[in-house]
Design the sequence.
């Protein structure tokens, strides 16, 4: 009996510190979340999507917590936060003095507050496709028969150092059974980041517009860009490079030439559910800087909920030297209902 009790005491003395150290390490070196009616968990923030945070530890199954129930959240390691404007923040999550959730950014050495409705995902798997589809139109009957239709689609994919974007826009309008507008615009763009903010780019744009005498305009561009801002409120990319133009016209003379390319992409979160975006392109001719083409797409989006957004867009196309009988400036206003996926 004495020998058995002695062995039991030795086992307890050997293994108890080990067991306690496991629990102590789990608590000290772990993420912490407080939610609901005083619930506290230690473990790891796994992910977040559609307003649901997934939290896991070694002693239970994954716990799914609505962000509205979270009172405080801290992580002892950086997480990748994707915002609703598609910008990325990386850093540990902290609870601010006023109780708001924040992310500590190494670049500025301090934490910034974020709202849960600004967060699209946390630790999103790399290479996931995102995008949106918008449909708009008008219909008028009576003394004047007028109708219009627009379709806009966009998809994106991001990797650790690369990003890819595909966009297409189609517009159609008629008055009293006569077609007054029909055009299609598409673009493909690939960026490779060789530092945190500098990147190389390759883009292709295609335009078909019979009312501008453009059977097909193809623009192939190479250049470099710099990401000026990329935070929860605003983003700004500036780009410069060269472009090859090829224009196949319905009536006018076809043309091919080299031009410059200057571009800017800007977004600003005006309110919690209101986002402004602007995409500007400028192509000056190397032969004569007075000749250039430009395109600007501005939009204002209001979030309705459950992935739906109301979107108002204004598009300006300008050609300083159009074909004979063609106006230099075209403008379009588009009201559309958009679904984000």
Sequence:
């Amino acid at each position: 009996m004495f020998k058995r009790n002695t062995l039991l005491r030795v086992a307890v003395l050997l293994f108890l510190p080990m067991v306690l150290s496991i629990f102590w390490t789990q608590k000290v070196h772990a993420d912490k979340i407080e939610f609901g009616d005083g619930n506290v968990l230690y473990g790891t923030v796994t992910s977040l999507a559609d307003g649901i945070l997934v939290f896991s530890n070694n002693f239970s199954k994954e716990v799914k917590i609505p962000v509205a129930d979270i009172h405080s959240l801290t992580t002892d390691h950086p997480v990748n936060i994707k915002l609703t404007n598609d910008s990325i923040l990386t850093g540990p999550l902290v609870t601010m003095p006023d109780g708001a959730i924040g992310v500590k950014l190494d670049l500025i050495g301090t934490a910034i507050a974020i709202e849960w409705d600004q967060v699209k995902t946390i630790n999103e798997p790399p290479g996931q496709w995102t995008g949106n589809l918008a449909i708009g139109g008008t219909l008028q009957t009576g003394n004047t028969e007028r109708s219009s239709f627009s379709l806009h689609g966009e998809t994106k994919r991001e990797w650790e150092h690369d990003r890819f974007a595909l966009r297409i826009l189609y517009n159609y309008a008629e008055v009293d059974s006569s077609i007054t507008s029909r055009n299609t615009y598409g673009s493909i763009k690939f960026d490779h980041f060789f530092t945190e903010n500098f990147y190389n780019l390759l883009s292709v744009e295609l335009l078909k517009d019979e009312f501008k005498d453009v059977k097909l305009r193809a623009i192939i561009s190479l250049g470099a860009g710099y990401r000026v801002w990329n935070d929860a409120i605003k983003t700004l990319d500036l780009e410069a490079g060269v472009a090859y133009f090829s224009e196949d016209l319905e009536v006018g003379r076809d043309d091919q030439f080299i031009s410059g390319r200057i571009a800017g992409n800007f977004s600003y979160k005006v309110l919690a559910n209101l986002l402004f975006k602007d995409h500007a392109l400028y192509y000056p001719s190397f032969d004569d800087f007075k000749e250039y083409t430009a395109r600007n797409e501005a939009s204002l989006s209001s979030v309705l909920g459950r992935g739906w957004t109301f979107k108002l867009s204004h598009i300006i196309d300008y050609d300083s030297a159009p074909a004979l009988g063609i106006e230099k400036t075209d403008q379009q206003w588009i009201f559309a209902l958009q679904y984000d996926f």
User: Anything to note?
Assistant: The chain has two domains: 2-122, 129-340. The two ends are 69 Å apart (CA to CA). Confidence is low (pLDDT under 50) at residues 19-28. The longest helix spans residues 2-28.
